[in-house]
Amino acid sequence: xxxxxxxxxxxxxxxxxxxxxxxxxxxxxxxxxxxxxxxxxxxxxxxxxxxxxxxxxxxxxxxxxxxxxxxxxxxxxxxxxxxxxxxxxxxxxxxxxxxxxxxxxxxxxxxxxxxxxxxxxxxxxxxxxxxxxxxxxxxxxxxxxxxxxxxxxxxxxxxxxxxxxxxxxxxxxxxxxxxxxxxxxxxxxxxxxxxxxxxxxxxxxxxxxxxxxxxxxxxxxxxxxxxxxxxxxxxxxxxxxxxxxxxxxxxxxxxxxxxxxxxxxxxxxxxxxxxxxxxxxxxxxxxxxxxxxxxxxxxxxxxxxxxxxxxxxxxxxxxxxxxxxxxxxxxxxxxxxxxxxxxxxxxxxxxxxxxxxxxxxxxxxxxxxxxxxxxxxxxxxxxxxxxxxxxxxxxxxxxxxxxxxxxxxxxxxxxxxxxxxxxxxxxxxxxxxxxxxxxxxxxxxxxx
Length: 448
Fold this sequence. Notes:
It is a multi-pass membrane protein. It is found in: Cell membrane. Its main location: membrane. Keywords: Cell membrane, Membrane, Transmembrane, Transmembrane helix. It is a single chain. This protein is mainly alpha-helical. The chain has three domains: about 1-45, no CATH class; about 45-300, no CATH class; about 315-400 and about 410-440, Winged helix-like DNA-binding domain superfamily/Winged helix DNA-binding domain (Arc Repressor Mutant, subunit A, Orthogonal Bundle), CATH 1.10.10.10. About 75% of the residues lie in helices and about 0% in strands. It has helices at about 1-15, 25-45, 50-75, 85-90, 95-110, 115-145, 155-185, 185-190, 195-220, 230-255, 260-265, 270-295, 310-330, 340-345, 350-360, 385-395, 410-430, 435-440; strands at about 335-340, 365-370, 375-380. A three-stranded antiparallel beta sheet has the order 1-3-2.
C-alpha cells in the first residue's frame, strides 16, 4: 500500500513539478516519456478515443469491401491484384484460422464488384462510401491533433485518392522487394554464415514490425489536416506498430487457446472476432497519433484535461491583433499567414484561434484561400475596415433568430446603461480603421 501511494504521489504531483529543461538529455527524455504515458492513459479513461475507435469500426465494416474494390482495381491495372489476399491474410493473422475464412469472404465480395454491373449510380455510391471512411478517419486524427478545420472538398478528393491509389502500390512494392531480396542467391549464401545468418534471421523477425511502422508513419504524416513532423510521426508509429504486432500475437494466442469460449458464439464467432480486432487496431492507431501529437507539442502536456475557453475581452483583442498581423503582410506584400504560423506568432494554440478566424471569415473581414494549407488575406482593403466591424463580428458571434438581444425582457435601467455603453464603444471604434492602426508602425504602409 505504501509503495502504491508513493507511485500515485509521483505520477500526480512530483512528475509535473520537475522542470525538464534543468535535466540532462536522457533524464529529460525519460520524464517526457512518463508524462506522455500518463496523458495517453488519461485520454483513454476519458473515453473519447474509445468512442472514435468504435465509430471507425462501424464505418470500416460498411466501407471495407468498396475500399478494397478500388485498391483491387489499382493493383489489377498493374497485374499484381493477386497480392491483395496475402496483405489481408497478414492483417487478419491474429484471428488464426478464422482470419483465412474472413479473407476468403472479403476477396469473394471484392471480385464480385464489377463496374459494369454496378452502373453509374452504384459506382458513385461505392466511391462515396470510400470517401466517407477516409473522411471519418481524418476527423478522428484531427481530434487527436486538436485540429478543428477539415480539408476542403477539392483537397479531400485529391488527398484521399492519393492514399487509396498509391497506398496499395507502396504495400505491394514493399512486399515484392522483401520477397525478391529473401529469394536472391546472395541472401541464401549469407544465411549460411554463422553471425550474418543470425543477423538476417533477427532482421526477418523484425521486418513485420518495420513494415507496420512505416505504414503507420505514412498515415500519421498524411491524414491529419495539419503539419506533422516525420520524426513525431515515426515516434508515434514505432509505439503503435510495436503494440499492433505484439497485441496481435497475444490476440492470436487467446483465440487459439479458447475454443470453448469461441464455440459459444457458434456461427457468429468469426464476425465477433473480426469486429474486436478491428476495434483494437483502430484504438492502437489513434493512441499512436496521440503519442505523436504530445511528442511534437511538449507545451500541450498538461496534467489536467483543460477545456480551452477564451474570455470575451481576449477574443476581442485576439481578433484585432490577428487583423493587424494579416494587414501588415498585406501591405508588405509578403506571403500570407497560415493558421499554424499565426497561432505560433501569437503564442496561442490553434484550437483557440480557429473559431476567431472562422468568425472573421464569416463576416467577410478575411478571405481563406485555397492553398494547402489555407492562407488568410483581408476581405477588403484595410482602409475600408473600421475597428467596430472587427469587434462587432466577435461580439455578435453565435447570435441567431433563437438567441439574440431582442428576446430578452425589456428593463429600462439595464437597457439605458447598455445602450450608452454600446454607443460610446461604437463611436470610438468606428472612427479608426485597420489601415490607420497599421500606419502607426514605424514604417508607413504603402497605399494599395
